[in-house]
Write a structure and sequence with these properties.
The longest helix is centred in the first third of the chain and has 19 residues. 44% of the residues lie in helices and 13% in strands. It is an alpha/beta fold and 363 residues long. Strands 1, 2, 3, 4, 5, 6, 7, 8, 9 and 10 form a 10-stranded parallel beta sheet that branches. Bound molecules: S-adenosyl-L-homocysteine.
């Protein structure tokens, strides 16, 4: 069977196999990659329309209780000055997004579990919802949280306060690899349980993995995609693993940039073909590999972008990995740059709406 027919057959299959996914991930020559890209782009149009949706990201604090071996803001990294945005700074960034027509914002931070923090996030959510409700957005700005593992009670409280999506990456769905990335107290089982708690609390649930981790195999990545499908995940945020200063994993190095970009784009395309009507982000980390990395993500089947809304003075303190792009650009510059990136792909920009691929009450 030729490549076109095999891709078509796999994308129509109700139960794609690990071998099917491995076949797609193994495509490498230019013409096969172009066929894969086209199939993913066209399926995206069919499933989620021609629009790309913006989630303005507010990196509200780099204070973290975790010590993930890959992460530039891990607790043990004493070289990074720690910061915490005030409620006013957070709400004002969110209001900027609402006025720019973004439709949604993401609140992301290091992981904190202290009661002060739980209350603080709840207050921010209530304030953002109240202030952003308008005739253009009758339900206010859509809010995604990306605040790490919390208790089931906290998930419920934050959902009631107005957040309707939660992003918690698995990082990898291969348990031994997961263990090699994290200290012993962070377990694979807890991570999966958290995803289930989030679904139960009523969120649209997002997850994702890092691509090109030291020791990661194509089989691991194929399993990751099957996991997204089997767990009925609503949104995916995934990107290349990039080394970060002052981390235990830095000495292990990383994949060559070209190969890593190709693999990351293939992961987006194959996830689209297998998971169909979900939202997939073209992450900033892609742009760290190549200046046009995020546009390429859209061309390979992503339909979400996350422009940075963090006040400029804090941006350099939120470097999860080295050479993070856009750390000295203001919000307006980011908006214009990203708008241009989207239109160059032939897509249009969705505004004043959540842009959920699936509704929170989907069966
Ligand atoms: N504390 C939150 C947010 C973490 S930062 C949480 O635990 O969910 C968001 C994501 O950045 C992480 O989930 C991880 O996948 C990614 N990340 C961290 N370090 C990275 C690195 N060195 N290279 C690529 N991605 C990285």
């Amino acid at each position: 069977m030729n490549v076109v027919n095999r891709i078509k057959e796999i994308s129509l299959s109700e139960s794609p196999t690990l071998d099917d996914i491995l076949f797609l991930l193994s495509l490498h020559d230019q013409s096969s990659l172009e066929i894969l890209r086209n199939a993913a782009f066209n399926l995206t149009t069919q499933m989620t329309g021609n629009q790309v949706w913006f989630r303005g990201i507010i990196e509200l604090s780099n204070i973290c209780r975790c010590d993930c071996n890959y992460c530039g803001i891990r607790k043990s990294n004493k070289a990074v000055p720690r910061y915490q945005l005030t409620k006013e700074e957070i709400v004002s960034a969110a209001m900027w997004a609402a006025q720019a027509g973004y439709g949604s914002c993401v609140l992301q931070s290091g992981e904190r579990k202290d009661p002060w923090y739980t209350d603080f996030i709840e207050e921010c959510l209530i304030a953002i919802k109240q202030q952003s409700t308008s005739t253009c957005m009758p339900h206010g700005l859509g809010i995604t949280l990306s605040l790490g593992e919390q208790t089931p009670e906290t998930y419920v409280r934050w959902h009631k306060a107005g957040a309707h999506r939660y992003l918690l990456r698995m990082e990898t769905t291969h348990p031994p690899l997961f263990s090699s990335l994290h200290p012993a107290q962070q377990t694979f089982e807890n991570r999966i349980e958290s995803l289930h708690h989030l679904k139960k609390a009523g969120y649209l649930v997002g997850t994702g993995v890092m691509i090109g981790l030291p020791g990661q195999t194509p089989e691991n990545l194929a399993h990751d995609i099957l996991f997204f499908k089997n767990e009925d995940i609503d949104m995916i945020g995934m990107g290349p693993y990039l080394v970060a200063e002052n981390t235990p994993m830095k000495k292990m190095g990383m994949m060559g940039k070209e190969e890593l970009l190709e693999l990351s784009l293939k992961m987006i395309a194959v996830t689209r073909l297998i998971c169909k009507n979900i939202n997939i982000a073209s992450t900033t980390a892609l742009q760290a590999l190549e200046p046009t990395g995020r546009e390429k993500g859209i061309r390979y089947g992503a339909n979400i972008l996350m422009p940075n809304l963090t006040p400029r003075k804090y941006r350099s303190y939120y470097q999860l990995y080295d050479h993070k792009p856009c750390i000295d650009e203001g919000r307006e510059a980011c908006r214009l740059c990203i708008r241009q990136r989207v239109t160059s792909t032939g897509r249009s920009i969705g505004t004043y709406d959540y842009g959920d691929a699936r509704r929170p009450d989907h069966a």
